[in-house]
Amino acid sequence: MSLKYQRIRQRDEQLPVLVKQLTRAFSSITLAIIFLLLIITYGIIGSVPLGMLVQTLLMGLAILLPITIAGIGAWRTGRSRWQVGLALLGVAGLIAAMDVYVVRQIIDAMPWFTRYHTTVIYRLRFFEMTELEFFSWWPMKLLLGLFILNMIWATIRRIEFKFVNIGVLSVHSGIVILTIGSMFYGNAKQEGDTLLWRDDQPLTGTVNTFYDAVTPAIYFTVGQAQLGIPLPQLPRYNDYDPLTAALDIKLHETPEFKERFGNQLQAVIPGFLAYAKLQTAWMNDPRAEPNPAWQVQLIAGEKGPAVSTNTLVANSSMDSVLQGGSWSVQYMLAMTQTQIDALKQSHKISQQPVSRFYLIQMDPAKAELQLLICLPGRDAIQVPLTADRFPVATFDSHTLWLQVIRYIPNARQTFIPVPVVRSERISKEEGTYLNALLPVDLSMTLPDGRAWHRRVWLTHMRYPEPGIADDQNRPITLDIPTIGKVDLCFSRQQIQLPFSIALGDFAMVPYPGSHMPRDFYSHLTLTHPDGKSQKGVTRLNHPMMHGRIKISQTGWDPGDTLNPQNDAKDQQGQYIHQQRYVILGIGNNVGIHIIFAGSCLIVIGIPWAFYVKPFLLRHRKHSIQRQLQQSPTAEES
Amino acid sequence: MNPIKLLPVSVCLCLCGLFLLTHLAHAQVRQEPAGNTLPKAPAPMPIAAAAGQSPSTPIMSEQQHDDFAEQLDLSVFSQLAVYDNGRAKIFDTYAREMIVNVYGKTRYRDMYTKRRYPPTFTWLDLLLNKSWYADRPLIYVEILELRRALAKLLPQEVENGFLQWGRLPPSLLLTEEAQQILNGSASDLRLIKGRNQVLSAWAGYQVLPDSVQLVSPSPQSDSDKWLTLFGDDANTQVLETRLAFMELAKAWNEADVTNAQHAIDKLVELLPSIHASTYPSVTLRYAESLYNRTHKFTIGYLAYGIATLLLLIAMGTQRKWLIRWGIVFLMLGFVVHTAGFAVRGLISGRWPIHNQFESFIALAWFACLIGIGLMFAKRQWMFGAAAAALGTTALLFANTVEIPSHDVANVAGILATSRILYIHVNVVIAAYALIALGFFIALFYLGVYYFKTDAAMRMASAGLGEMDKSQGPQKLLHDLDKAHVVILQLAFWLLGVGILLGAYWADHAWGRWWGWDPKETWALITWIIYLIVIHLRFGVKKPQLVTAWLSVIGFIVMLWTHWGVNLLLAGLHSYA
Fold this sequence. Notes:
The structure holds 2 protein chains of 2 kinds. Helices cover 33% and strands 32% of the residues of chain A. By secondary structure, chain A is an alpha+beta fold. In chain A, strands 1, 2, 3, 19, 20, 21, 22, 23, 24 and 25 form a 10-stranded antiparallel beta sheet that branches. Chain A has a 5-stranded mixed beta sheet with strand order 9-10-11-12-13, with helices on one face. A 4-stranded antiparallel beta sheet of chain A has the order 4-5-17-18, with no helix packed on it. The radius of gyration of chain A is 36 Å and the shape is extended. Chain B is an all-alpha fold. Chain B has helices at 7-31, 47-50, 62-71, 91-103, 119-128, 144-151, 156-165, 170-173, 176-183, 189-205, 236-253, 257-274, 282-293, 300-317, 320-348, 356-378, 381-400, 413-416, 419-450, 454-463, 473-509, 518-539, 543-568, and strands at residues 81-84, 87-90, 139-140, 167-168, 213-215, 227-228. A two-stranded antiparallel ribbon of chain B has the order 1-2. A two-stranded antiparallel ribbon of chain B has the order 3-4. In chain B, α4 packs across α5 and α16 packs antiparallel against α17 (381-400). The chains are: A alpha+beta, B mainly alpha. The interface between A and B is large, with 66 and 63 residues.
């Protein structure tokens, strides 16, 4: 305890008890260490998946608990009795091994661990945050704030403001400045990216906006006018059932929407699917043209589970056949007996080792099926399908059955959203919206009083640009009564730039003799509204700075690397199928200089405190000793 | 008799046993197949014929094949250069990488003859004599589920043997059923990954000689691309080399050793001379060959291991001459370690700290360098023993475990274009090295603290450079703590500097100085632990003991930050 702190503690005695306790608590190193431990805990929880964390803790406890107990026991038996101690530790080791076995069994038996093996806490329903949002959440801010307060108070009360202490004072000031700077930085930070076409491309043009890295948005485009509504409240990791309106985000209540569409149109996001696919499916639509189809199921074993459910549609070449490795089932409509006989004949001369089954509906108006069985090396057999199932193949003494479920007279193709099971998800893409499906319900009351309603499923477009859209990720066009054609697009929030950017040229520099990129060069022109322009290059690790805005090279167009024409160039030497666009990272850097200053103080302060201060103290001690030796003693004087 | 008196002897015996077991285990790993028991299959089964295809007809007998492999001298040929996967490498390296891709190990072992072949021979054999392997277990199938499904297609009498061997014959993969298994619809990511691995191995098996880039770029040409021997734009020298290669192919198929050797000698002479100025130098190629043969110089663990033993025995028995010998072996290990680091740098053309293998070797190297430096500066042998123990552990691990990215390869552009990154990574690695060194010193401290016996005191006092145990335990502990704190303070500072340099780089590379990526979070946690160490020393009853225990915890956390986070947590640092 420093002399300064001893003096201050004496003065503290005059303070009211509560104030005295509080001020002493915030002067203590113990409290600082508690805060640091809490920050560590927060960091662990925020970075390690829950399943892995609990599993590690359980395993750790299983090993450490018996060994610790035995260790304490051994210690208490006396230091000389090593045999007893070692024996105890040996037994503890055995118990630990058994514990690990038991815990392993428990973990294996509990699906919780598998389910949450890759789930970090901020991905849970309650949180639905990004990593960055979780670490910028109020508990972390509170912890950091209290730690800083503790450090400032302890520094003021404990450390003498002397030259020798400049190191520790510098480190403490550096930590305070860095923390305050990073809070300022975090609040003012805007970052995202944009896509920019090369100047010789048909879609070329300048951009004066970029897309936010985090916040999703929905866009309504009518003609040339575009309305973007940010959706910061949209979840990102979990599914929210639209049937129960689990989300119910009312877009029509936003001022921008009201201004554009008035009160006439209502738009609601009723749910959200974080990782799903739109699959084609056949449904019965009494209003549609007759289109006979049969829903069937493949069943493993006599009473086994359904392997898959399919719809056989005679008029769809894609969906009229169902096949496995050694068998196939085909649904045929309006066949005459002569045609069936021809099939039997062709089977007779066929040498193929595949079992073929034909489900034949001779009269389209009657839901009755004939089954034609063509097994390899045998004559074809035609029977009416009286039972609802028949075997199609046998594997390892298990039989695969085909069960006819129901008849669909007016089949119409539609798309249904199907969540992707966890084992099939690409973990890097979870939470990015790249595979998300967003349902939007649009409704209005028509002038004649009838209700109009549509639900659309939007896939995410990272860049809502015309050249980027594909079959999977594209805007959906709706014809809305009294409004006309409206494009709906699910993307990211657009942020305005104070200038426009154009891409002049782009070059990917590969490693010698290969196609592996080593660097990228984007030649950019930035133009201000007043016409002033600035040219520059951005490349990997060398961003282009414009005031406080940083433009970095983050992506490029590799083309289709499997296409043999991918390396083709035009007469100007420009690639035709690759390197047509770049992706630029754009962000501000407000407060970075404060952070830099804090960092410098820490970096300089630590060696002062560890090496310069002891040196100065030693030097002073020696000089005092020398002075004492040189000065005459009392006896001499 | 106090068992503690036997401590040094016990430790030595344990370490000797460990070395012996490791070597035995290592030998087992290299010789045994992936399965557990050897299949009983006396001769190759005509699987292709069983699968309804025309059977392969190798023209040489097992004996001829073995004799051919035995008599052929490929030692110089294996040092010829070939361009592959973005860099020029020697044929030996290329062959090793290709065989790992196809077979799963660097050396092919025949299931029937049990003979192991050198990588260069196997790869040339695969290029020129594919039919020999058609019915032999060659294609590695990593995912057991997939291996089982494919093995079911084999004749029943060989199914089990092939399954245990872990490899399947290429002819099997040509069958319709196998193709259905490999190309049919699947959505499970693990299975898709497994299929891709098999398809990649299959593609490796199908590589033809005309796709191997053996001719270095012409200095007159604008292009820096390497050429094959069978290109359209071949000059006279290339044509001559092509003829030599075709001669080799013919002799190889006939198992004609004399002509094959003649063709190989011709290739060895011709290939480097076609465009001599762009061909990698003999020194560089020899260095790479040495790098491969010494298992990336990780055999240095032997010298480090002997040094550890000698230093521990010397400290336990107070014999100065053993210290001298320990230091000799320590320096020998360090020279080998340094050579490994330097040759890796020479081959890759960069300071090798870019991936997990490189950073692991660099971390151990930095720790040994600092340990040796401190040992000489302070005349405290404990630092040498700690460095030797750390070097042994690290190089033994690198020698026996296939650390990710152990092959030399180009790095992602973002890592290749920044100077600040080099400084950041080196500083962090140096800090981690100090933490590792601090851990060993902490073990010394804890040993002395809990075992205040004659042997422990003797060992500690010798470790501190005092060969007589005149000083009491308190003085010893104080000295050990002093040495420990020197290390930890430096580690704390360097780690702080390293983290901030990383933040500076991230600001340039990713546009954000701090993103709470798992690696960043855990680096900060590691730093906070040492921040706690420094502050706890002011307010606890036994600061030295607490420091020692926290150093052990800090080391475990550092290992997790350096390894666990990369392997188990997804983030931006997954390549580090």
